[in-house]
Amino acid sequence: MDKVKYVIKNNLDMDPMHDSYATEIRIEENFLIVVYDNNKTQEFYLSHSGRYNITASKCINHVQINCWYGGNVIDTARSYGGDVANPSHEPESESCIGSWLKTRGIRNKIILMTKGGNPEFKSGKLVKHRINEQSIETDITKSLEKLNTDYIDIYFLHKDDPNIEPAEAIEILSKYIKNGMVKHIGASNWSAERIEKANLYAQKHD
Fold this sequence. Notes:
5 helices, 8-stranded mixed β-sheet, two-stranded antiparallel sheet, globular
């Protein structure tokens, strides 16, 4: 996939792909990424510190502009938008998107995806996995609050925990589908083998 590096510096910067149709908007770590129908992408740097700093209002502005181009999928995560220089900083990605959705009143027109259960890291090292009932409940509850919504279209487990069976992960998430808080579930950063096991279990216990 061709990538076009485009760092927003001020509110006057215009989208150089105005003749293309945005098919997906997602936020990964410190970048807002827009994917277009010509298979090109734009990356907007969202770091709290560093040379380029984009405020929440600018982020909302560019999400809105790209949705005007037809994009209707927003992919975020509970951990996105945190300050890498200050790990205790509350991640802002979901809050930013939630504020925008509330202001625009178009929740029913957006396919909203987010992720949770991300492992806990300290000084770059894995401290503990978080695919368990308590952590997932905390993450989903917080995501719904920050996103200003009462349901998530697709909820992903952000990273795998090889110490638990895929069936256990399915069981943890199933109650959120039953109560309507989550419409669909998925897995991010899982092996194909682990995903296949999860799918087989889900099909047998539907």
